[in-house]
Every structure is written in structure tokens, then in C-alpha cells.
Amino acid sequence: MAQNQNVLNQNDEYGNYIPCGKRGYEWKVVVDPTETNEESGLFLGGLFRMVDFRLDRDEKSTWPDGIVFENVYTGHRLTFQNGVLFDLTKAISMARKTRIPKKKEKPLTPDTNPPASPIQIRRFIMIRNKDLTGISGTGVVAEGAVFSDGLSILRWLRSPFALGVYPSLDDLITVHGHGGASQVVIIDECTQPE
Q1: Helices (H) and strands (E) in the chain — how many of each?
Q2: Which residue of 26, 70, 93, 164 has the lowest C-beta tally within 10 Å?
Q3: Inter-CA distances, 147 with 45, 151, 156, 167, Å
């Protein structure tokens, strides 16, 4: 009878059979701080994978301090002390270093490619006096903005809340103005800085 390749078995130092379970479940709990005189503890004798207790950076442990895991093949021992994984065999902490995000430094030289014109974004609303299509309704039906280079965006205020991008405000009005049935009202006046 062929042995299941996903199950690994081993004998202890006295020749007793140790069922190790599925491949990867090789860390056995040998000291369980939840053990009391009445109960054997929540984890004692349980088999776990390294991924079950190895923490990511800045992650807090949910394992009780003092629990000891022993590798059933090598005898290597790990424990948690103050929420940090500690290697008892090598007497070192296995905590991963905290990542510190690098700050983006501002360039020391001024931007050599300033915008061609002062940045002026003008907001607008589209008012539809007559709904020729029967879809958008009447009144304020959309809002938008005209960027300093003339690019215009339009967002409809009714479902499905579509967004359109147009090379210019004139192009936008050509598409959505419906021959004068709609008008665009600029909210922000464009002023040139002195």
C-alpha cells in the first residue's frame, strides 16, 4: 500500500510513532501556558505550520507568551516573549524590522518646465432647459471643470453618473448642448495673477 505523499510520519527517540499530519505541519506545541491542573491547555500537542505563527512586520502576536513550538524533525524550538517570536535554539529574536517609509525629497533646483499659463481651473454647471432625449431630465444635470489648457470634463448628476473628457469646452457643448436646449454656466471667473 502506497503511503500518502502529503502525510509525513516520524518516530520519537524511544521509537514511538509520531503522526505529523500533513506536509508543513511540523511545529508541535510542547509548552502551553494555557495549561492548568484541570485541563491540558488549548494548544498542547497541536501541530502548526511556520506561517501560522510567523508574524509580518508590525503585526502583534495572538499567541500566548511562553508558548513553545518544537520542530518535530529537528528539535528546533521557538517561543513568544512579549509578543515577539524568539528562537530558543539560537537565542535570537525573529522579529522582522519595521519598515520606515522613505520621505520624498523636494528637488533643490526650481522646476525648469513651469506651466505655459497660470493654473486656472474653472468650474461650471450644465443646465438643461428642455430634455430632448428623455434621459437626463431638466435643470442642473451635470457639473464639470475647464482646465488651464482648455481640456474639459463633465460629470452627470443622475444615474449612471458618467464622466466625459473633451479637448475643449466648445467640443463639450457641441456634443451635449442639443442646439441650445442646454447651457453651460461658469461658476469660477478666470483671473490672471499679477
Answers
A1: 2, 13
A2: 93
A3: 67, 5, 18, 10
Which helix (H) or strand (E) segment holds residue 173: the answer is helix 169-176
| Listed residue (120, 186, 188, 180) closest to 150, CA to CA | 120
Chain position carrying cell 473628457: 165
How big is the chain by its Cα radius of gyration, in Å? 34
- Say if strands 27-31 and 17-22 run parallel, antiparallel, or are unpaired: unpaired
Q: Helix or strand or coil: residue 30?
A: strand
How many residues does the structure list for the chain?
A: 194
pTM over 0.90: no
Nearest to 75 by CA among 40, 31, 18, 26: 26
CB-count exposure of residue 171 (10 Å: 0-12, 13-18, 19+): middle
d(CA 21, CA 19): 6
- Domain spans in the chain, listed from the N-terminal domain onward: 7-93, 122-186
Distance CA 70, CA 106 (A): 51
